[in-house]
Specification:
Strand order of the largest sheet of chain B: 1-2
Low-confidence stretches of chain A: 490-505
CATH class of chain A: Alpha Beta
Structural class of chain A: alpha/beta
Radius of gyration of chain B: 22 Å
Number of helices of chain B: 4
CATH topology of chain A: Amidase signature (AS) enzymes
Strand order of the largest sheet of chain A: 1-3-2-4-6-5-10-11-9-7-8
CATH architecture of one domain in chain B: Orthogonal Bundle
Number of strands of chain B: 2
Helix content of chain A: 25-40%
Mean pLDDT of chain B: 81
Largest sheet of chain A: 11 strands, mixed
Oligomer: heterodimer
């Protein structure tokens, strides 16, 4: 332990070190900030880092963070995706449209993190308004994958995933509308959870598709993700779609016991388009869970293939409405060349939005427009009902569903930038879960061609506890989550040397 | 399926000014995306109801019951604190006397 940098410690390890007086929040936060300085010029995981505020915050917890009465994240360094409002800090959602915007209020999750003692480091890069699967759509330049800088980290929460993988944050939050937490989690080799719709308040999350958006945790192991979800989950009067249900003790409930658990392998998630190395790693993971006493059988979700088209009608439709507010009046960019109101709106939006956002606004507006509404939007909503019903039936027969997170490992920067349809297809296994509204986690399950592969475990609505527990059992039986990317594992000599290598297979 | 007129119409509804290049690119891309979505149009959905509330608007995304059992959420109609006006206007591109400033809305003298 002493030979590892504090930047590579988990939140639970930091808590133990604080409790034993062997490290202080100031030391840990400084180690993470130093790591950001060292790796972020290459990664570009962050859009904003407030070093001074983080160090001041950390110092407040020195000597107190290790006490029994300290809140759960006292002195733990946490990063936030830049579509989550932070009072006084820039919040751009990766868009030039919101360059310079500083929200006058905190998102509910931001408030809960502060109350839990978390030290907020800054804001992480993402695809513009969370629309994308690679973080290349950020208006401020792409984030690079810490395992291979020529590749994307996934998206849209690519900055949060890359930061946690590289030790540039202990924990981070992202948002997932069609896979934007799980897919970058898989591509960067970290634990990443999309919660049940309604589990976490969306108040202060910059809206993309309101019936799908959920905030969730990134962490380097399952216990850390459980700790973070316990802090942010729960009802919020400011979000009427948040569920008034009690929040279980996620971290305390991890037993690692999966004997008798019924797991369904989703047949449609292993079909055409999946890379052989990904399928092998995920099947091997199912074998590990079976070896621990779970029963694994195949299950079919025959309409899963229709989730992609349904999603790319529903989500853009909601986005076209949600993004109407960016018109150069209340906040954000405003064109300098407009004499009348229509031109003010239309030209401001031309100048402020990037290509993918424009494409989705157009697609969504088309699907909602007179003459096409029944054929596209209404049909897509009916398909959504069908998919929800299929998931509900499968989750009656099985306790959890299992499959890959993404069909391939991280692709090269630029590879899919000019082909929106190919980009959309990278979310085929995550999108159905958003439409069904149920929780799904990405857990590192090995490597294909030297790049991380993610195992997806899908649970019943509001049963994040079962998802965490199976993921924890898998993690306890395998070394994959301990592997760290080369960027973090070969630090300059001024650092403490982190534990060597890990297990790259 | 998507012609220039449709692109121009949708762009106007979207309040999006497009360059000639964008108009051409979106026509081709939206066409190929919708082409891919034809499978959806062929699906037999007789008897499949849409989810309960179809509103795509923020906050109204209540769908059927299995992942979201809440329907109408009401609270007492009481005065609650709101953000200070100057904080809200601080992000406005143009403001005056506590108001957002926009170009003239009504044409004429």
């Amino acid at each position: 332990m002493a030979s590892r940098s504090l930047a590579d410690c988990t939140a639970w390890e930091l808590r133990d070190l604080y409790a034993r007086g062997e490290a202080s929040p100031s030391e840990a936060v400084r180690a993470v900030l130093d790591r950001i300085d060292a790796v972020d010029p290459a990664l570009h995981a962050y859009l904003y880092v407030d070093r001074e505020a983080a160090l001041l915050d950390a110092a407040r917890w020195d000597g107190r963070a290790g006490r029994d009465d300290a809140p759960p994240l006292a002195g733990i360094p946490v990063a936030l995706k830049d579509n989550i409002c932070t009072r006084g800090w820039p919040t751009t959602a990766g868009s030039r449209m919101l360059e310079g915007f500083r929200p006058p209020y905190d998102a509910t999750v931001t408030v809960r993190l502060r109350e839990a003692g978390a030290v907020l480091l800054g804001k992480t890069n993402c695809d513009e308004f969370a629309m994308g699967s690679s973080t290349e759509n950020s208006g401020f330049g792409p984030t690079h994958n810490p395992w291979d800088l020529a590749r994307v980290p996934g998206g849209s929460s690519g900055g949060s995933a890359a930061a946690v993988a590289a030790g540039a944050a202990t924990l981070a939050l992202g948002s997932d509308t069609g896979g934007s937490i799980r897919q970058p989690g898989a591509h960067c080799g970290v634990v990443a959870l999309k919660t049940t719709y309604g589990r976490v308040s969306r108040y202060g999350l910059i809206a993309f598709a309101s019936s799908l958006d959920q905030i969730g945790p990134f962490a380097r192991d399952v216990r850390d993700a459980a700790l973070l979800l316990g802090v942010i989950a729960g009802h919020d009067p400011a979000d009427s779609t948040s569920a008034p249900r009690p929040v279980p003790a996620y971290a305390g409930g991890l037993t690692g016991e999966v004997r008798g658990l019924r797991i369904g392998l989703v047949r449609e998630f292993f079909g055409e388009g999946i890379a052989p190395g990904v399928a092998d790693a995920v099947r091997a993971a199912a074998g590990v869970l079976a070896g621990l006493g779970a029963t694994c059988d195949e299950v079919s979700l025959p309409h899963a293939a229709y989730a992609m088209p349904a999603y790319y009608i529903i989500a853009p439709a909601e986005a076209s409405s949600n993004l109407a507010r960016y018109a150069g009046v209340q906040y954000g960019h405003r064109t300098e060349h407009a004499e009348d109101l229509y031109t003010l709106y239309a030209r401001t939006r031309r100048e402020g939005f990037g290509a993918e956002v424009k494409r989705r606004i157009m697609l969504g507006t088309f699907a909602l427009s007179s003459g096409y509404y029944d054929a596209y939007y209404l049909r897509a909503q009916r398909v959504r009902t069908l998919i929800r019903r299929e998931f509900a039936a499968a989750l009656e027969r099985f306790d959890l569903l299992l499959g890959p997170v993404a069909p391939t490992t991280a692709f090269r920067i630029g590879e899919k930038a000019e082909d929106p349809l190919q980009m959309y297809l990278s979310d085929v296994y995550t999108i159905p879960v958003n439409l069904a509204g149920v929780p799904g986690i990405s857990v590192p399950c090995g490597f294909a061609g030297g790049l991380p592969v993610g195992l997806q475990l899908i649970g019943r609505a509001f049963d994040e506890a079962a998802v965490f527990n199976a993921a924890f059992a898998y993690e306890q039986a395998t070394p994959h989550h301990t592997a760290r990317p080369p960027l973090a594992a070969s630090p300059p000599s001024s650092w403490d040397s982190p534990r060597a290598g890990g297990s790259r297979a | 399926m998507i012609d220039d007129r449709t692109v121009a119409h949708v762009a106007r509804l979207s309040r999006l000014e497009l360059s000639d290049d964008e108009r051409e690119r979106f026509r081709a891309q939206l066409g190929s995306i919708l082409e891919h979505f034809q499978s959806l149009l062929a699906l037999d959905l007789a008897g499949e109801a849409p989810p309960g509330d179809l509103s795509p608007l923020a906050g109204n995304g209540r769908l059927d019951a299995h992942a979201s059992e809440i329907t109408n959420v009401l609270r007492e109609d009481t005065v609650q604190p709101c953000l200070p006006l100057e904080d809200v206007l601080a992000n406005a591109p143009a403001s005056e006397d506590g108001c957002f400033v926009v170009p003239p809305v009504i044409e004429g003298e």
